[in-house]
Amino acid sequence: MLNIYNVIAELCSLVIGSCTEDFFVRYSCISKSEKSRINGIIYEKVPMLFSGEDVRQFSESDFTGDFFSAMDELISFLRVEQDFFAIVGLVQVLDEGLESLLRKKIAEFQQDDFSVVLNTNRESVGIGLLPRCSCVWERKRRLSHYYNRMDNFLFNMLLMENSILGELIDKHFFLKKELFADFEKRRMLKVAVTPLRLEPKFSALSYDKDKVQYFRIAYDEEDFSEDNELIWQKILLSAHNKSDIIVFPEMLGNPDMISFVAQKIKSLPPEEAENIPSMIVLPSFWSKNYNTVTILDKFGNVICRQSKQNPFRMEKDGTGYLEGIYSSLVVNIFHFEGIGRIAILICKDFLTTQYMEQLMRCFKLTLIIVPSFSTGSYDFRQSFDLCAHDDCSVVWINTCAALEKGKEANFENIGYVRKRISRTDDEAQMLCKMPICKGAFSGKCTHDCIYYEVISGV
């Protein structure tokens, strides 16, 4: 059986490779008569795409040899005529008709550890297709005012261009429905974030390699039981407050933390386990030249690990040192109906504008989670605004452990949530601030800071 998604990917590649940006601007204002002409051509060649005047919902049994023969004849005709308006119109018909099947695909993908794209010709055509999960806080015509592109006209398929992705490797996780079991009813996410502690408990050690000065992280202790118990208590507190996601900062993790937290979760009685946050973004841990965040689900299972891609540049006594990390090039994208697409960008990854926008454009991100270890918030606040026009919410959490003497003014707030709000809402709700505990400035840490914010449908 031929793959209908291969056909769509090839058509999209043809349009993207042949048409200018102005073409998409013009198509966005297509006339009724032109739309009627296009539907007439499609109906004449492939009448099974329609039920009366409406596009019909397809089933797997529709994709027969006769169907693909008719499609080949239609596509060949449109290619010869270079009728790109009609080719886009055909892709839209297929996108609409596949809605029911794509919902089923999402359900199938939720049972997999991770998912690959729907089409098998991604390498040759430079296009990857996935079911597109909607998001309750994004506009229906999202991107249409900022990017004039093919994916403006698709609503059920996520179109990913290899030319935008570049050398990055994408892995996709369609989160199981039971993780956010009541999201469809509530239409909101409650996020808990914590700066965790004031003590860094590690040192940055410098070294030279290939004409460049680097630094690596060396942790001060071998017994991490106290730290792990603190992490666990934060998770329990977020569960008590019925949070969907909890986010910890960068760098404050340890090698024992994952198994410790997982075992704690799995040993809970069912009535307590039920309230554990659906996603737990543990503090990152620096090891063997990788700075890595581990993401657990509410059942204590590792969903995936996300490594930092862009090294931080540290300056000491006027001399620059580069974080000695390797880039895995792997980008993990989490999908869930109603939430859309989530990515985790560790500190410098979010501040590297080209990288951040690359991910936003390729995957149409709706939520970015940013664990950080930073001496200030200014640059992060500037980057929040870059996400605003794409209806992408941002959760950023820093840690008091990054506080340096003389830079207290940079720590007025230890975290922010930037979200889309309704036109009728108070603009102050758009950027939610998390003020730092005043004890941090005097070196006093009670380890009780945790903040909550709600991201809801608009």
What does this structure look like?
With 458 residues, the chain is α/β, with parallel strands linked by helices. The protein contains 15 helices and 22 strands. The protein has helices at 4-18, 21-27, 32-45, 65-81, 84-97, 99-109, 122-125, 162-165, 183-186, 225-240, 257-266, 270-273, 348-351, 353-363, 378-388, and strands at 50-51, 54-55, 127-131, 157-161, 169-174, 188-193, 202-209, 212-219, 245-247, 279-281, 285-287, 290-297, 302-307, 313-316, 319-323, 330-336, 340-344, 367-371, 393-397, 413-418, 431-435, 451-456. The protein has a 7-stranded mixed beta sheet. Strands 6, 9, 10, 11, 12, 13 and 22 form a 7-stranded mixed beta sheet that branches. The two termini are 42 Å apart. 40% of the residues are buried.
Short overview:
Helices cover 32% and strands 25% of the residues. With 458 residues, it is an alpha/beta fold.
In total, the number of strands is 22
State the distance separating the first and last CA atoms. Answer: 42 Å
Please give the radius of gyration in angstroms.
24 Å
The major beta sheet can be summarized as:
7 strands, mixed
Indicate the overall shape: elongated
Query: What do the pLDDT scores average to?
Result: 93
Can you count the helices?
15
Strand order of the largest sheet: 5-16-17-18-19-20-21
Strand content: 15-25%
Helix content: 25-40%
- Give the helix/strand class: alpha/beta
Unreliable segments of 5+ consecutive residues:
none
